[in-house]
Amino acid sequence: MAAKEIKSKETPLMKQYNEIKRKYPDACLLFRVGDFYETFGEDAVRASKILGIVLTKRGAGSETETALAGFPHHSLNTYLPKLVKAGLRVAICDQLEDPKMTKTIVKRGVTELVTPGVAMNDEVLHSKSNNFLASIYFGKKLLGISFLDVSTGEFLVAQGNEEYIDKLLQNFVPSEILIQKNNRNQFKEVFGEDFNTFYIEDWVFKEDYALETMMSHFQTNSLKGFGIEELQDGIIASGAILYYLSETQHNKIQHITNIQRIAEDAYVWMDRFTIRNLELYQSTAHNAVTLLDVIDKTLSPMGSRLLKRWLALPLKDCHKIRSRHEVVAYLKENQDVLKKIQHQIKQISDLERLISKVATGKISPREVIYLKESLDAIIPIKTLALESKQEAVRIIGDNLHACDLLRDKIKTTLNQDAPVSINKGNAIAKGIHQELDELRAIAFSGKEFLEAIEKRESERTGITSLKISFNNVFGYYIEVRNTHKDKVPTEWIRKQTLVNAERYITEELKEYESKILGAEDKIHQIETHLFEQLVNWIATYIKPVQLNANLVAQLDCLTSFAQLAIDNNYVCPVLDDSFELEIKEGRHPVIEKQLPVGVPYISNDVFLDRETQQLIMITGPNMSGKSAILRQTALIVLLAQMGSFVPAEAVRMGIVDKIFTRVGASDNISMGESTFMVEMNETASILNNISDRSLVLLDEIGRGTSTYDGISIAWAIAEFLHENPAQPKTLFATHYHELNEMSELLPRIQNYNVSVKELKDTVLFIRKLVKGGSAHSFGIHVAKMAGMPQMVIQKAQKLLKKLEKDHSSDVLNGIKSTKDEMQLSIFNLDDPLLEEIREDILNLDINTLTPVEALMKLNELKRMLLKK
């Protein structure tokens, strides 16, 4: 009974609201009522907290009481970004008809659903970063993943194992991820809970549905042209993204003209620990400077976004890398050309996002002018590039599209100072539409027209103080002072009597008024129609403009590298086919920028190969700069393979295909893992994935556990890397100076230390890498420098002397003896069976043995032992 009563008390407006809300239960519904967007119920409670607006009640005290919070409709661009950045999906419900034209309740409907990953609003988007929507499909063996930036039209797809997908999520940092409802828990287990996720019905993630959706969007009969037809899991993820766009009322998406495969084998592999450890583009530390902050000298939003992509995906193709280096060298040597190109790039707005707004019909007249000006600025770049002596620059110049017709059409159709909104009027230029020009003459030459009437009637009647004015009650009128009342002609109609005057209207004024008021409405209609026509026509140029945006972005990144090389004295690295890495006087690109003015960065040499110096064991105290040397080696390799010059005097290197780092103690305690467990996880991931072109950087392995444990683990890991057939180039920093003994036992391990100068009661850090191990640790010196109380320092020194005396040789003797044991025990016994096995193993030709034969042989040896 009570439910029925409430139902009957529901107002028509609330009934309409509830029907629309039922279709969008998980979105915050902004419901247009007159000049306001209102939110109700739980939406109102959330919105009021996020936006800091007043929460009131509708129908306070009644059974249908509901929370209410709203803001003026013209403030949408202020409030919408705040809601989306807070992770909400926002459904914008507008009035679909003019309230004046209906006697019943106004028709309303959702015109757009804005989500963290699907936004075209400039206030939500960040110009230097992509705003990716991702979709993940959990296939039988692999995972499919797709990324789409609706604001630029970039559509990317890949598939791989969990580790690869995790790396891509770290690289592309999507604002929102779509997942099949069934895989909710699986996603959280594998990727954690830091992402904005949205769950979609399972039927969307079906191969035939995805293929149909994709082919229908791209208007093709197959996906072969995009080179992605084998990526079945990736295609399913991509189909789900297109489905989601249609569900969020984004149906005008012809700017999504292409889908690209992220080719796993084309880029340097870095796992998520490495991306985080090297602080490439994000850092856990507050206010930390990342590598991207230092190297980004781009001048356009497109360039800035592309540079981030290049940093996330450094190249492995020597030819492509050299091509970038050649352009940078050319620009560095021809700084007049560089300056001219930079000057032009500065004039270019965000072409990618502007042309996307054209496709979605959300572009303003002023933005169309920006589009034209940006295309104008490309012409001098095209000319400069075509005149270049450098082939790669000439190719860019050749491919840039002049868009002459497009620029000309915008120039002739729109006024140069076109308004922010078409509703403001005066967007369309003179001479485009005859009727529009005539109507404007009526609407805007009104002043002269009225003055002419005023003058004529004043002379005709002899009323010198006659005045024509306008008010909202009865429009245009003639005001006559009482002193001239007797001169008023009979055909004038009296409308109002004031204390000192009377107001009249005439047929002529009424006619003129309806003409003027009609003209303004008609002007608006014609301007809107002409602008829509122009936008639809511009949409036929989506592909050439997108191509221009991409070429300008590439050129912007290369000019950024040239500027970086000039400003910071970077050199061109020499790439060859060897497995070597030779850095002369290398510097850390970020740290050198942080040093106080006048303080030089202490540069260092590093040489690694697979024959003589495969693993460098770096000892030295904390704070001496071991980590900096490790990080700078990785960053120099990364910069080189991005196509940039590098901070060094000279660099010669073979291509690196994987970079692994285990630097610093990045705790994962929030997920219930200790520092040591995290360290072991990360190190295990490295040891299981190394290749012959890998660069491995290990810092302080084993420090999360007891000294003996730590030394044993570090020793075993170093030995594994040395003995591994891939022989990866490795820098191994440790404060366990006991590990220096390894170089005596293993030929490709060389000892280096970061030198320090011991003074009477302190230590001076020289930060230079020199050959040879360091004799002891300097932890107590560092404690003293930190201001530790004198008594603590003295006690520590006493204990250290005692421990060194008692235990120094124990650990190493233990490790050495186990090594000898392992090598000798099996052959020490006077046993004919073991002698037979020994003969068997010695006679094996390992070089010709296949993996299957090796397993069979192992099985045979095992059986021999079991018989015994």
How does this model look, in words?
The chain is an alpha/beta fold and 868 residues long. The protein has six domains: 2-114, DNA repair protein MutS, domain I (MutS, DNA mismatch repair protein, domain I, 3-Layer(aba) Sandwich); 133-266, MutS, connector domain (Nucleotidyltransferase, domain 5), CATH 3.30.420; 323-431 and 534-568, MutS, DNA mismatch repair protein, Chain A, domain 3; 434-514, MutS, DNA mismatch repair protein, Chain A, domain 3; 574-776, P-loop containing nucleotide triphosphate hydrolases (Rossmann fold, 3-Layer(aba) Sandwich); 832-867, no CATH class. Helices cover 47% and strands 17% of the residues. It contains 30 helices and 27 strands. The strands form five sheets. A seven-stranded mixed beta sheet has the order 13-23-24-25-21-26-27, sandwiched between helices. Strand 10, helix 6 (184-191) and strand 11 form a beta-alpha-beta unit. Helix 13 (335-346) packs antiparallel against helix 15 (365-387). The longest helix is centred in the C-terminal third of the chain and has 39 residues, at 790-828. The protein is elongated, with a radius of gyration of 37 Å. The chain starts with a helix and ends with a helix.
